[in-house]
Design goal:
- By secondary structure, this protein is an all-alpha fold.
- It has a single domain (60-313), classed as Methane Monooxygenase Hydroxylase, Chain G, domain 1, CATH 1.20.58.
- It contains 18 helices and no strands.
- Helix 5 runs parallel beside helix 9 and helix 14 packs antiparallel against helix 18.
- The chain is globular.
- The chain binds protoporphyrin IX containing FE (HEM).
- Protoporphyrin IX containing FE is lined by residues 68-69, 72, 118, 127, 138-140, 142, 145, 181, 196, 259, 262-263, 266-267, 276-280, 282, 285-286.
Length: 324
């Protein structure tokens, strides 16, 4: 290899960088000489990753259940990277915003289609054999899922539907008290909070309040409004609104419907359905048409909002694909 002037220039710049902090360049050169080359398994922490499945029973299909939850949590983490990039960008570009919403849509698209791993991937008898050992743990306790919601929309849009109007002008803290999942996770016979929710709130409530307040002026909807105020062409507006509609459907209809279908496959039983590990009245709690969580009501007609979670969704999806 030649010591070309370009290479010398790079080394001089590197030396300058190190010495400008008062450190010794040669110490670094000695360190590099002794450093190990990178390898794939350490770089992606493969061994740690593969050691993170700790079944609590010896039922054969339990690792599938754990692994698919972990895969989903990693996708949630990808989604949060995009949300936080949008929230924290100092001068947000329209193209960057659109690119990041598209990424979010691809992540949720992948999660929706891969949910078949859960829906069809375990024997029902195996699932029922290990699930009782998990109570009261439930995906309900996914903090990342709740963080994603807080980063996507104003809190008022994820307040329990019956309280939205009344709390429209209330503080974030008051609205959070009525967030849909706090309101919905009740034992039907007693009206008491399900223990899965009690545990979850105890662990994460302060973090959720902090997130809700931090995202108040920079959640995805607020940043979209800011871009609109700064001026968007007609074409940009259509393209951003469609991307946001798709996000709303992905997070609040498509994924929840696929999740509900999976719950039905494993928990439905005649004459009475099997109780969920989290203890909610899941048949009423999970279907999107009952909760009607809508991140961006401004982007939907009144009929679409009233019929949220029903069959018109497929038509809208086709339309959005058509004008993309
Ligand atoms: C066999 C597979 C699954 C079944 C039977 C199932 C069942 C349920 C049920 C019944 C609930 C309601 C809360 C309760 O009472 O427990 C719930 C909530 C939830 N589950 Fe699952 N689940 C499955 C897989 C997953 C996976 C893979 C994830 C990914 C992290 C997940 C995430 C969630 C979330 C985020 C909620 C809260 C939904 C909301 O508040 O609207 N679930 N699940």
């Amino acid at each position: 290899m030649e010591w070309t002037p370009e290479l010398m220039e790079k080394l001089t710049a590197l030396r300058g960088k190190i010495e400008s902090t008062g450190q010794d360049f040669e110490t670094y050169v000695d360190g590099w000489q002794r450093a190990q080359f990178k390898n794939y398994w350490d770089y992606i922490q493969l061994e740690t990753l593969l050691s993170l499945q700790r079944p609590v029973t010896d039922v054969q299909d339990e690792p599938i259940f754990i692994i698919y939850h972990q895969i989903t949590e990693l996708y949630f983490k990808l989604a949060r990277i995009e949300i936080d990039a949008i929230a924290s960008a100092e001068a947000l570009e329209v193209s960057d915003f659109k690119e990041r919403i598209d990424r979010l849509n691809r992540y949720f698209g992948a999660l929706r289609s891969s949910f078949g791993v859960m829906e069809k991937g375990m024997k029902k008898s195996e699932f029922l054999a290990f699930r009782d050992a998990l109570a009261p743990a439930s995906g309900f306790q996914s903090a990342q899922y709740r963080m994603i919601e807080l980063g996507c929309a104003p809190v008022i849009n994820i307040v329990a539907e019956s309280k939205r109007e009344e709390l429209l002008r209330s503080s974030i803290e008051e609205q959070m008290e009525a967030i849909y999942w706090r309101d919905g996770a009740k034992i039907e016979s007693t009206g008491q909070p399900a223990y899965t929710a009690v545990q979850f709130i105890e662990k994460y409530w302060d973090d959720f309040l902090f997130a809700a307040e931090s995202y108040e002026h920079c959640n995805i909807w607020e940043r979209f409004c800011e871009l609109k105020r700064n001026g968007l062409s007609d074409e940009e507006l259509v393209s951003l609104e469609n991307a946001l509609r798709l996000l709303d459907l992905n997070v609040n209809v498509n994924w929840p419907l696929q999740h509900y279908k999976t719950a039905v496959r494993y928990l439905s039983k005649k004459p009475t359905d099997i109780a969920a590990t989290g203890g909610t009245n899941w048949q009423k709690y999970l279907p999107p048409r009952f909760q009607r969580r809508i991140f961006y009501p401004e982007l939907w007609t009144e009929t679409q909002q009233a019929e949220w979670g029903k069959s018109w969704v497929e038509d809208v999806l086709r339309e959005i694909e058509g004008v993309k």
